[in-house]
Amino acid sequence: MSNIVNEVLAANTAYAATFGDKSNLPMPPARHLAILTCMDARLDPAKFAGLTEGDAHVIRNAGGRASDDAIRSLVISYKLLGTREWLVIHHSNCGMETFTDEVMRGLLASSLKTASIDEKGWRDQTDGTGSTEGEYLDWLTIGDQTRSVVADVRRIRTHALVPQTIPIYGYVYDVKSGRLNEIPEATEIGRAVQTQTART
Ligand SMILES: [Zn+2]
Asked: Is the whole model's pTM more than 0.90, yes or no?
């Protein structure tokens, strides 16, 4: 087994040894919150949003985009598990800003190996392992973080399966400071038509 897997297993042994009363946590998130954000390794939602086990749903993908699958998770999150407020959080210096669909499709067509990036952009070798399957995926790249947060909040807000009662807030996380900066235009679009007052 690789070193990293062994490190993960050692860390998990230590974690489980102090698991304590977390064995009785209910499945629905205690804080009725769901966050959609990027998979970027520099973002740790539990830390930057002050979450602990049982608190919230955190749905992550490349870019934190409101893909069909992200919306599937959000709908399950409220419909079956009772979340009442959603945050869409994109971030500065996102890898999704470094390429376009065309670039990704070209890279994948020339090779399946890890590409490299320099000041001229992404480059790859042609080694015969490529595939044109990349043509069939929408890579949901990002041109501008503010615009992408606004677009994703709008897509979720206007989705037929999302009730008007759930407020959706839009933020950009700054990887240089750890701060969440609100995108007021997104939050305005995501405003609930009628807010829920009772909290349990
Ligand atoms: Zn990212």
From this structure: yes
